[in-house]
C-alpha cells in the first residue's frame, strides 16, 4: 500500500477550490456542503496533487455554504493522521467552492 509521505502532504497543503452542489435540510434550512461530499472531493483533490489518495478522509459535520465558514476534518495515511481545515471560499447560486489546508504535522 502506498502512503502519503509527510513531505508530499506539505507540498500540497493548500489544495485548490473545489466546486460542489449545495444541499439544504428537509426543513429548508441554510445551504450546506454535505460532509461526505467534502470528504470525497478533498480526498480526490489530494490524490490528484500528490499521486495517492489518503486511506481515509472524514469530516464530522457539513460545511456551511457561507464564505469564510470552516470545519475541521481528518485524513489518515498509513499510521499517520493529519488534521485539515476546510473553508468555503465562494458561493454562487447552488454551487460552492472550498479550500483544504492540511496541517503541517501529523497528530500525536
From TrEMBL:
Keywords: Signal. Residues 1-28 form the signal peptide. InterPro entries: DUF4333. Residues 22-93 form the DUF4333 domain. The keyword Signal applies. Pfam families: DUF4333. This is DUF4333 domain-containing protein. It comes from Streptomyces mimosae.
